[in-house]
Design goal:
Blueprint lengths: L13 H14 L4 H6 L3 H14 L6 H14 L3 H13 L4 H8 L6 H16 L5 H9 L4 H24 L11 H4 L1
Helix pairs in contact: 3-9, 4-5, 4-7, 4-9, 5-6, 7-8, 7-9
Amino acid sequence: MQRINKVDPNNVPARTTELLSAVKASMGGVPNIIGTMAQSATVLDSYLGFSGTLSKGVLSNSLQEQLALASANVNGCDYCASAHTTLGQNAGLSSDETALNLRGLSNDPKTQQALLFAQAVLKSRGQVSDRELASIRMAGFSDEEIVEIVANVALNVFTNYFNNVAATDIDFPVVRTQQRAA
């Protein structure tokens, strides 16, 4: 049962209405995470701004989805596992690849290094070793890409924690993380 409710879109401040309308226009609907974040227009606006800006970075949309899947698993967020499995497949990833990504793995060696680095960032709370940083550079990632990987991890920590606290009702085909499947 959802622990923080979605807003009633007919009974929200003008700024919230504006934000929800923009999401609906771009996505064709308002996912439960967005409707729940809308409890605070400030939080929703911040999330939309951060995620919108990151989507224009140098990392591909598919790699961003793969990072989100690895983060969802580390943080035990079934909502994000479900959403990013669908979004990853919409970005061209196969169902086999998204299943691997959810476990922090990839068929692509370079992507595998990005997922390993993201997991190291998550598990060490950013205190990665010199060896881990050298490994991602040796895999061919520039400092710009590394910085964006860290930013994507940070954004996903927010959504993972948000959904775990709110117990957001999953409105995508349900995918369970390893943390939750046991």
